[in-house]
Amino acid sequence: MTSFAPLQNDTFLRALMRQPTAHTPVWLMRQAGRYLSEYRATRAKAGSFMDLATNPDYATEVTLQPLERFPLDAAILFSDILTVPDAMGLGLHFVEGEGPRFARPLRDEKDVLSLRVPELDSLDYVFKAVTQIRTELKGRVPLIGFSGSPWTLACYMVEGQGSREFHTIKKMLYARPDLMHRILDINATAVAQYLNAQIEAGAQAVMIFDSWGGALADGAFQQFSLAYMQQVVARLQRNHDGAAVPVVVFTKGGGQWIEQIAGIGADAVGLDWTVNLARARELVGAKVGLQGNLDPAILFAGEAQIRAEVRKVLNDFGAPSDGSGHVFNLGHGISQFTSPDSVAAMVDEVHNYSRQQRSPIVNNFERN
Amino acid sequence: MTSFAPLQNDTFLRALMRQPTAHTPVWLMRQAGRYLSEYRATRAKAGSFMDLATNPDYATEVTLQPLERFPLDAAILFSDILTVPDAMGLGLHFVEGEGPRFARPLRDEKDVLSLRVPELDSLDYVFKAVTQIRTELKGRVPLIGFSGSPWTLACYMVEGQGSREFHTIKKMLYARPDLMHRILDINATAVAQYLNAQIEAGAQAVMIFDSWGGALADGAFQQFSLAYMQQVVARLQRNHDGAAVPVVVFTKGGGQWIEQIAGIGADAVGLDWTVNLARARELVGAKVGLQGNLDPAILFAGEAQIRAEVRKVLNDFGAPSDGSGHVFNLGHGISQFTSPDSVAAMVDEVHNYSRQQRSPIVNNFERN
């Protein structure tokens, strides 16, 4: 077993578990990505996106890049949410400018019946990257592992690619729920094993991305996405190497189901920008931490506006005297068209303003 | 002033206004459309989509087509939500398979400052179609007029086309809210005038489609979409020719804001399939009627499954002894890949089951 350097900044982990922190921690979904010129340089060196993602050296390099630029409070493994179905033999590849595709999507009963939980060996490149990143982080900040949710993986596995309407998988869901449940059952087992292996390899928190849960009808969401995330969460090891390993679940477009999502046993719930944080906090109470939820498009505005919107999110969540448990993030992945200067301003404002919230300067002159 | 035949089926209008009805009325968003072979035939005859939409004879023909097939409780004007910005001179056209485009989108201050509320004359083809459809309906069912919401029109006007992330308009919204408000102010005036002219021409109810309100952050939605829909609703004539003209507002992805949407003065609120109808009804109480919300993808399943899901929606809303005010619809426009037989089964089940809900057969043997 690898021995890692002690953690110097545990703000992120503490906030997920609703413990007091000196400032609100911040990281960004897709923080290692195309908006950074150094990422684009590594990507050019590596070749395709999959060449980059499957090479632990490159994955480590790009994971650490945003931490050199910004005082972020967490690192997140550079990988793709679709590594698991790729390991199932579906043939993941990326069409430039169009996103992920599977060469062999699941289209009929025969396809579904031959689907198996993959051998973890085939995902070894991921676990190697986790260990290497954790080592090279030298304890600066915690490392987040992640996976797509069983439903979100299934969306790509059945549609064969991203979709706007999800006609193919919804047709299966409504016409052949037995096949749908079979896929989701296999995915839930695979995702739980995959995340546990990431934890064994060094991930200090894990996040489940339910990117397409919000496409489901009320009722179907609970049955075909939430129930399987609950299965995954129940099977995760929540303590490793003497430390708690918090779990975050994030259903994009799931704002209406916050209370139900908060009830599946995760430590924290990710929120997109459509959710009012004050209301969310009121609904979930002390049950879970909350992560989010600045609209990534705000980073296209000027610095003063960005700082004002950051303060609005922090004020919506409320001063920490009301409790703790907020991790600042965007409500979705950062756009490739974002200026890194805007990210710097955002991170700076989160840290500064959240410290002010914790130690308000009482100015009696101004109060009068 | 044209004199129209008396209305024979007012179920739809009554339900919008929360009056008792003998069955739950039903219509479908995009009910005149590509899933019908007779629509495709008219379209082929007409030429482009705009050739079809701007010709009152063709618009009348396709509006009436679904009523010949199914016993629907309302007709909706065949038109496009983007006629208003087209009349503003932005140059609407349709790229086959890709949806609407504007030749001259609003990209800078100069573009925005030269924007004007269009002369209603330029939309005369719409009002002519309304009058002709209402005449040819001969009072069978009411005719719905409609428009895009000020925000949804602005999305297309600024982006120049549909979008997944709305970066261009969101950049304007956050960086130049003054320009954004100017566009929305003009749109609100134009939409109100446009809908009032449809009412004058014969529309018996009107609906505002806020297709992209759900892309906005909480806070921004209220400021940049809801406030302008409220302005439109406030300016509409709610009575015409001796009859009440109910107003429906529909924000796709607006499930979290139902209570606020219900508070802007409309008679009814449209809901997409992510919303739980029982919960929605609990939240809005007696304030408004509700319209929706079957997932259009359910129409890809078999007949038994379709009928079961229709009953689920009707049961979620609740038996009419609990009150009234439900118009059955899909949660979004019907897919072009839907079988008309599935629509027939859906409409049949709505009518039959909702009648059963109103006159339950009390079977004492089964109860014991």
Main sheet strand line-up of chain A: 1-4-5-8-9-10-11
Structural class of chain A: alpha/beta
Basic shape of chain A:
globular
Order of helices and strands of chain A: HHHHEHEEHHEHHHEHEEEHEHEHEHH
Share of residues in strands of chain A: 5-15%
Rounded to an integer, what's the Rg of chain A over CA atoms?
A: 20 Å
Stretches of chain A where pLDDT is under 50 for at least 5 consecutive residues are: 363-368
Q: Based on the coordinates given, report the CATH architecture of chain A.
A: Alpha-Beta Barrel
Question: CATH class of chain A, please?
Answer: Alpha Beta
Average pLDDT of chain A, rounded to a whole number, is: 94
Q: How can the largest sheet of chain A be summarized?
A: 7 strands, parallel
* Tally of distinct domains of chain A: 1
Largest interface: A-B, 35 and 35 residues
What assembly state would you assign to the polypeptide chains in this entry?
homodimer
And the CATH topology of chain A?
TIM Barrel
Question: In brief, what are we looking at here?
Answer:
2 copies of one chain form a homodimer. The first copy, chain A, is of the alpha/beta class and about 375 residues long. Chain A contains 16 helices and 11 strands.
